[in-house]
Design goal:
The chain is built from six helices and four strands. It is mainly α and 198 residues long. The C terminus is likely disordered.
Length: 198
Amino acid sequence: MSTHSSAELTTKTSLTQWALIAMLTGLAAFGTVLIRIPVPATTGYFNIGDVFVVWAGLWLGPLGGLIVGAIGPTIADAIGFPQFILATAVTKGLEGLIVGLLAYRSKGVARKVIAAAVGSTMIVVGCFSFEAYIYPKLGSGIPFFAVTDLGAATVEILPNLVQAVIGAAVGVALWRATSGYSVGEKVIPKAAGKTGIL
């Protein structure tokens, strides 16, 4: 392959990666807005946006997971729940990053499942940390953040756990549905149990 052809292929691959990141960012925002089940104790809400954050981390790697997680759900929070933008950007960004780092370059299903499970725990750990400690501390000086406390954060552990399990399970299922397509190489979709690389 000539240097020119190699550079052209690299450019096309890069454009494809960014297009997919943009698409999954939009889907994460849409999924977060589509189903909103309020959790009155914290004024937060249950949603399915994590499905796309996990999918991004598994399919597009740590950078894709980080961007999709930090931006997609945050856009959704800007519509009606701006007080949670900070917590969402950090928590969901770390979720996508951790999934991507643990799953990076692994083709095995077991490794992907573990990555999704570990990354999704950030929903529970991150949200609890913000709602029980960080927001009350910020809220003492900035009323905008005075929306929750330790008791309310404890109430939200169960719905956040359910959200994490759904996000991990469906995210892995979507990755398996698209795992025959490599973003970094020119790959023929799986057929008869084999993957061909051009």
